[in-house]
Amino acid sequence: MSAVRVLVCFKVTPDFEALREADWAAAATQGVQTRYVRRVLNCFDESALELALGLSDAAARLGVTVELGALSIGGREVDPYLKTLVALGYERAARVAAGADGDIADTDAAGVGVGAAAGAAGVDGAGLDRAASGLDFAPAVVASIIASYVLRADHSDLLVLGCRSGPGDGGTVPFRVAEALGWPCLTRVTSIEPLGDGRLRVGAMVDDGLLRVTLRPPCVLAVGNALVSHLRAPTLKDRLERRERRIDVLAAADLGLDIAAELRREACVPTALETIDRRRRGAVIAGATPRDKARTLFDSYLSDLIETL
Amino acid sequence: MRFAALLDGTVATAAVQAQALAGFLGDGLRGDLAGETFVLYCDERDRERLVDLAPTRDVRLVKTAARRPERMFDCLTAAARGGDTALFLAAAGATGTEIVTRLACRAGGGVLTDALTIEARPQRLVCRKNVYSNHLVGRFELRARPWCVTVDACWNDTRRSPSPSHTILSESDESGDAGRPGATTDTRATGATGAAPFADAELLEAPSSGDLAKSRFLVVAGYGAASREGTERIADAARRMGADFGVSRPVAMNAWAPMDRLMGVSGTRAAPALCIVAGASGAPALYWGIEKAGLIVAVNPDERAPIVANSDAALLDDAVAVLEELAEIVAGRRTHE
Amino acid sequence: MHLSREAIVEGLQRIVGPADVITDRRILVESSVDNFRKLQNIFDVHTMPVPAAIVMARSTEQVAAILRFAGEHTINVIPRTGGTATEGGLESAVPDSIIIDGSAMNRIVDIDAYDMQATCQCGVPLQALEDRVRELGLTTGHSPQSKPVAHMGGLVATRSIGQFSTLYGGIEDMVVGLEAVFPGGIVTRIKNVPRRAAGPDIRHVVIGNEGALCFITEVTVKLFPYFPENNVFLGYTLKDMKTGFEVLRAVMVNGYKPSVARVYDPGDAGLHFSHFAADDDCVLLFMAEGPAGIAKATADGIAAIVAGFAECTRVDSAYIETWFNDLCWGPDKITAEDERIRQTLNVNRTTEISADWSSINDIYQAARARIIAEIPDITMMGGHSSHSYINGTNMYFNYFFNVVGVGPEEETAKYYLPIIGIICEETLKRGGSIVHHHGMGKARAPWVRDEYGSSYYILETLKHAFDPEGIMNKGTIFPL
Fold first, then answer.
1. Contact (Cβ atoms closer than 8 angstroms) between residue A202 and residue A191
2. B38 — phi, psi (to 5°)?
């Protein structure tokens, strides 16, 4: 039986949880400054990477070969993750150094600036500092890079990636890639198991419940809230054994793409950021014990309301 | 300009979608637009009910295969290319995202998901949506038409009632593998429409998060529950009070509660009349799931937790202890009656 | 004649009332261990003897009565407050122990902004005290990573140290007086004074006793003015830890007092700084604080010293400041880390030692090399130096391993204890101390005689004198 050639796409993002209230408050005028916070794997992509390793392990037990590859778009900050993946058994590891000016992430700019002059009429991309934002709000460009890599370089037949990522939280990249490749796509995937005959058993949490599907690649699987959410760690010995393995670094041009032109074609353009005021009354209910407080809450707020529910 | 609302009747969430679309057409949409609804269905028995749900008077019926969203597009693509429909709207969700994204790709338009508000201008569509896991709202412009948008599914507060009577403008059947009428097949998509990859799709018996989206009374547990046992005690207290039960992401990722209980950016968004947040700090990603609640009660020992300021009333105490006391009071009241 | 578990519970109930004696089996089992057996805790595998009861003490008098009761019946007691210990100090090593929990004694007794000292009961969370004094423009100067969860009694009992120690010192430099209850129910108060030369400084009998001599009920600590607006951060990358130690030494011996002075080896730096450091880079960082003139002079002086080391490349200070603002671990991060371990079986452990400048790099290199060579399944072996002194510094070994082929209950025997053994051997061989700030607990107790040498006489005599029945936290500091 022929091997399944899997490509997992992942994104290394700033750890937005490390930003403070003041950073978000300043974002509407100054943009979100993420340059100084540490980098993490997008959580859905981390699930995707580990699910693919689990698929490979399970397939090996059935005598089926799964060839794993990993792809990310970004600068040198991605390389430690690619080295880790190589040590874990990913046989192909590639990074597309793509951005508005060729390799933006390597130019040391990773913040997103949406200027106060946002919306200034007429100018393409008005208000968004593209050089600083990279591809954060350019899902069509990301999808075309991934699809071009699959078609021109990797020739994989199963694509696994996270269903969404910050900052855009759009969730459209998997479907865009599926469209470009002409493949079906299943989203919010939570499990991937091999059946031994080339088909896969896939679980997905769709809008109306848990879906279980048997399918045969090629297809795109977009991973959602899987219980498998952490990537395993390679040993130092694994790293030593595979340290000579190459990480492919490609320019967009290698894939026949002109990123600046692609960005100009992006049909959805961010123009401004707004802060959100969530404050409510925040009345603190006093009391000596949990029972006292619960009683006061009930009498003051809930007794009438609860009748209507 | 015209819009087309897309109601996916092949999944069980059609009523929630219809409510979202109706609410959005009433409050979220600005601009001079008239429109119709494409009702997608796979079972003749659902037809009448789905037509009744349509948020516009004019309806186009499309019969399609269940759980094969890639089959739904030919007639939509034709409409997008041929007609004067500038805007396609679907409710937020997995199928909504797939429909609008694939449609935009095929018709050369622009996509935005989970829009809070949209405003149609002559050459562009101005949209607002939450970004950065609900830390901020972003404003976007869609340039290329058709504009393909999913709309925030949470419009329970001031929803417009569905139109009382409907006019069916057209019907088509795309449920078969061959002979798709009126199709302008995109050559790039032949792989998708030619294969039958999801032939034995099976919806497992699983508790659906649909009940959370429609909840009137919600209890949400956070990591302050401290353990699986603490989470279960809060869930039990919620059950005794007649409340639905949701959890924050750390609780779900720790498997202290099933994943379909997850509230927030990567889970469910609801607009209950009453929401009690038990032991969650109220980070923006969770708050997205509950911010439309009428009354928010926070139970958290830490007065600096964001949920305290972002609640209507706050009890600075242990989540499990308070919820159990409250359940006793509420259950006692109900028994008494 | 030993009392039955039931009789122990009854005796405690007579002292504190039934509501404050916890006998819930589940809670007792969870309380039989601390974070030393964190993998077992994550998988709910418990192998230690189950304590007879947890007693929530609400006053010094109750603690005294409980210790009298335990003494009369020779029952082992384990003092505890926040419960964040990592070295087995809170494990119940023998059956039918009593855990005396001081977390309900959580009153801040006094904050004196004139005499610059604060008195609080043992169960006051450090975070709560720090928040209160910050409102007055003051700080305790104490900021261990456990600040959000640790309590004052436990911090003093384990001789803890915080992230700003190079300026403010360890907890032993902050405690001016305290109250402690010794076996037999003897309540002792050491008054709060700036200094004394009236014989040996007996505070040090109590500070760091790890519950093996007495129960700390109240502490008074120094307060300092708080000038966060003056903080200056400095960061550098470099290739060699030896150079890093040399820079730290130069800063210290030239008389500078940064609040933070650290050097991370490449492995440890990779966990925090991969967004600006290459994967073979060490990272050196400083924070200067205090009145504006001092903070600036300190930072300028340090920058001038580092400029003399060509290997060091300056990085944008904002990297360091941003990292520092997200350093402490609250319950949410602990929960997330536990879940990571549960899924991956990749366990993170730490062991901290100290030594003089001449030895520290040799200890670091030798221990690291041996652990990589001798211990299987290591996924990261690194560390950092984070607390420096005029004569030397500490090394905080930080390491991860995959648990392969054994159950959670065998993790300590297969991996953790052998690693601790290597670190202790390499440290003792070169004259360092095997424990810099986590405490001996039960994990490093087997090395206590080697650690103390001939001075073990003093330590052992303290134990015999104050705890002749041997009821105080058996197995901690002094091996069974």
1. yes
2. -90, 120
Tens digit of pLDDT for each residue in A259-303?
A: 988 888 889 999 999 999 999 999 999 999 999 999 999 999 999
CB contact under 8 A, A214 and B295: no
Residue B214 and residue B190 in one domain: no
- Under the banding of pLDDT at 50, 70 and 90, the label for residue A121 is very low
Distance, CA of C43 to CA of C30 (rounded, Å)? 11
The answer to whether residue A198 neighbours chain B at the CB level (below 8 Å) is no
Same domain, B231 and B188: no
- Tokens 């607002």, residue? B128
Q: Is residue B189 part of a domain?
A: yes
Do B42 and B114 share a domain, yes or no?
yes
- Structural domain tally of chain B? 2
Out of A5-9, A205-209, C340-344, pick the least confident: A205-209
What domains appear along chain C, each with residue ranges and CATH number?
228-324 (3.30.70.3450)
For residue A135, the SS3 value is: coil
Distance of CA A201 to the CA centre of its chain: 23
Cα–Cα dist B191/A215, whole Å:
14
State the residue for tokens 């809450």.
A297
CB neighbour list of residue A152: distance below 8 Å, 6 or more residues apart: A255, A256
Task: Confirm whether B278 is domain-assigned.
Answer: yes
* Helix, coil or strand: residue B220: strand
Q: Phi and psi of A274, rounded to 5°?
A: -125, 140
Residues B50 and B96 in one domain: yes
Q: Looking at residue A99, what is its pLDDT?
A: 58
Residues B182 and B219 occupy one common structural domain: no
Percentage of residues of chain C with pLDDT beyond 90: 94
* Complex ipTM value: 0.89
**Mean pLDDT within C155-161:** 97
Whether A272 contacts A25, CB under 8 Å: no
Average pLDDT, chain A: 86
Judge whether A171 is closer than 8 Å to chain B, CB to CB.
yes
Residue B179: exposure state from Cβ atoms within 10 A (0-12, 13-18, ≥19): exposed
Average pLDDT for residues B95-117, to the nearest whole number? 92
Instruction: Let me know: does B330 contact B313? Beta carbons within 8 Å.
Output: no
The domain containing residue B13 runs over which residues?
Answer: 2-194
Comparing A70 with B32, the larger pLDDT belongs to A70
Tell me: do B87 and B183 sit in the same domain: yes
- Alpha-helical segments (H) within C31-151: 38-42, 60-72, 126-134
Burial class (CB in 10 A: 0-12, 13-18, 19+), C462: middle
A231 in reach of chain C (CB within 8 A): yes
Most confident of A104-108, B172-176, B251-255, C259-263: C259-263
Amino acid, res. B153: A
Are B171 and B235 contained in the same domain? no
CATH 3.40.50.620 positions along chain A are: 4-278
- Say if B195 is an interface residue toward chain A (CB within 8 Å): yes
CA–CA min distance B115, chain C (Å)? 31
A4-278 maps to which CATH number?
A: 3.40.50.620
CA distances in angstroms from C274 to A39, A212, C237, listed in the order given: 7, 39, 11
Residues 6+ apart with CB under 8 A from A261: none
Partner-chain residue, chosen from B11, B104, B326, that has the shortest CB–CB distance to A208: B11
In a domain, B204, yes or no: no
A138-178 pLDDT tens trace: 999 999 999 999 999 999 999 999 999 988 889 999 999 99
Question: Which residues of chain B have a CB within 8 Å of the CB of C339?
Answer: 250, 253-254
Query: Do residues B185 and B40 both lie within one domain?
Result: yes
Closest CA to B298 of B270, B279, B283: B279
Tokens of A247: 């990480």
Nearest to B324 by CA among B197, B219, B252, B248: B219
